[in-house]
Design goal:
By secondary structure, the protein is of the alpha+beta class. The protein contains 1 helix and 6 strands. It has one domain. Helix content is 19%, strand content 42%. The strands form 2 sheets. It has a 4-stranded mixed sheet, with helices on one face. A two-stranded antiparallel ribbon has the order 4-5.
Length: 81
């Protein structure tokens, strides 16, 4: 199972959260960014439906897999501000 960390950071004259180097929208306050990160982290843990997915790898080969709806990551919110 993977582990996803939402980090609260200053960004674009405000606050945001970041996950794996990707920033959320900017929020005017630290509290708003923290609340948004907590919501996003909670939503990521919610089980979904099991789905069949298809994708092409860079070498041109197509793959078909079943993505289990219960295979959700652990999430945490890290706030060092």
């Amino acid at each position: 199972m993977s582990h996803v960390i939402y980090r609260i950071v200053q960004h674009d004259d405000g606050w945001a959260y970041t996950v794996n180097g990707v920033f959320s929208e900017a929020f005017a306050t630290h509290a708003a960014a923290l609340a948004a990160a907590k919501r996003a982290a909670a939503e990521q843990r919610v089980p979904g439906r099991t789905e069949v997915i298809e994708y092409e790898t860079p070498d041109g080969i197509w793959h078909t897999e079943t993505a289990a709806g219960i295979d959700r990551p652990d999430t945490d919110v890290e706030d060092k501000a």
